[in-house]
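QUALITY CONTROL LOG
STEP: pairwise intake check
CHECKER ROLE: data steward
CRITERIA: each record must contain a sequence immediately followed by its structure tokens, with no blank fields

ENTRY 1 OF 2
RESULT FIELD BELOW
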Amino acid sequence: MRFFDDKFNILIYYLSILFFHSMYDIHIEGILSRLKSKDWWNNTLSDNDEETKKYYSKHYKKALKVHCFEWTCFIHIPIIFYIYYLNIIVDWKLMLLSLVINYLFHYITDNIIEEMNELTQTKQPIFYIQCIFTATLWLKFILLK
């Protein structure tokens, strides 16, 4: 019997990706949660001169890029674990493509939300959907082969 023939194992696979997403967002992200916020930079720099404000005005994007890279790597940990555990040979280009697509989607979405100055609660379901979508693609096209 293959590992993913059992519905319980598939459930554990999905839950582990959502768990890693939650662990990163709640426990690991730390200072990046503030640094990736445009408002945090504006409030912190409110007493500074205009030249300083202009210099730091886009620094939130640098922190956002770091956050997106970390988040992307973190949600791929369960996928990499299952690839290793099941001894599946995966082309490194496919893994790189998955990492790049997830990074870009997360960065573009986070950046749009930050520019619109939306509340954090409105964006969270988007990233749960992204986790499930990524997990499903890997499960369907790679892990169930």
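ENTRY 2 OF 2
RESULT FIELD BELOW
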Amino acid sequence: MATLAQLAAGLQTRLATISGLRAEDYWPSSLNPPVGIALVWPMQRATLGGDRIYGFIIELIVSVADVERAQASIYGYMDVSGTNSILAAIEAGDTLGGLAAFTQTDEPGQGWARPELREIPPGSGKVYMAATLTGSIWVAI
């Protein structure tokens, strides 16, 4: 069965297919936006056979040197289709290289945090435009 680190790396691989978006499978010590950071955790057993469901988030962070451009950029990543769409990138390889039965993102508005200005990390004085995208990974045992 895939480990949490392997599943996060699988998501990172999907994010890396988006031109210009840096992709991480861990929280980096310093941010270099635009970046998508994949984090994974176990949620529940899906069946009596032991299949598992893992939750994931993609922390999407862009620079706000120009707020209007930052907003346009983050919209492209959050769109449901297109060359910069995180949803489309994940759906195009939803088995994460054979690690999962399938991966699904939550519906926009159903688990995705709206784009907002955030101080990252808190107390740092550094402000970015960020959004959190959520979903689940089904792994058959």
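INTAKE CHECK: passed for both entries
DESCRIPTIVE NOTE, ENTRY 2: Helices lie at 4-15, 67-78, 86-91.
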